[in-house]
Specification:
about 140 residues; alpha/beta; Rossmann fold; 7 helices; about 55% helix; globular
């Protein structure tokens, strides 16, 4: 199963953001264990680096991206995605880029805490908690 992670889910884990980290981390672990294919937009790598640099140094921010890359498949943010995002009926351009990146990568669903930003999506849009409740993966412990 291909699961596309919105940037906010990744940041929940990297920033240990309560009360969201527990469910976000559990789904991340499924990707780490190879029980799902975790996908992240190439755009998210740049956004995460920019955000990480605000709370740490460059080397640590790059290490975070290496950790991310070791677990997740980057998904293209190319001319097609940009064109679709510009033509799409999404109120926020960045959310449109995330959505069309996921759709073009044949994701089975999108994980986000901002489902209202994906009202026009044809893919299932779930929170990590909803995803875990909908799918029986058994224990997500290492």
């Amino acid at each position: 199963m291909k699961v596309f992670f919105d940037t906010n889910i990744i940041l929940d884990v990297l920033r240990n953001r309560e009360p969201f980290v527990q469910h976000s981390q559990a789904v991340w672990l499924l990707a780490e264990q190879g029980r799902i294919v975790g996908q992240v937009s190439a755009l998210s790598f740049a956004n995460i680096f920019y955000i990480a640099r605000r709370f740490t140094d460059t080397g640590t921010a790059q290490d975070l991206l290496r950790q991310l890359r070791a677990v997740f498949q980057p998904v293209a943010c190319d001319a097609t995605v940009i064109d679709q995002s510009l033509a799409g009926d999404f109120p926020d351009f960045e959310d449109a880029v995330q959505y069309f990146s996921a759709r073009n990568a044949a994701a089975d669903c999108i994980l986000t805490r901002d489902a209202k930003h994906f009202r026009n999506a044809t893919l299932p849009v779930l929170s990590p908690e909803q995803f875990l409740a909908a799918h029986d993966f058994g224990s997500t412990s290492p």
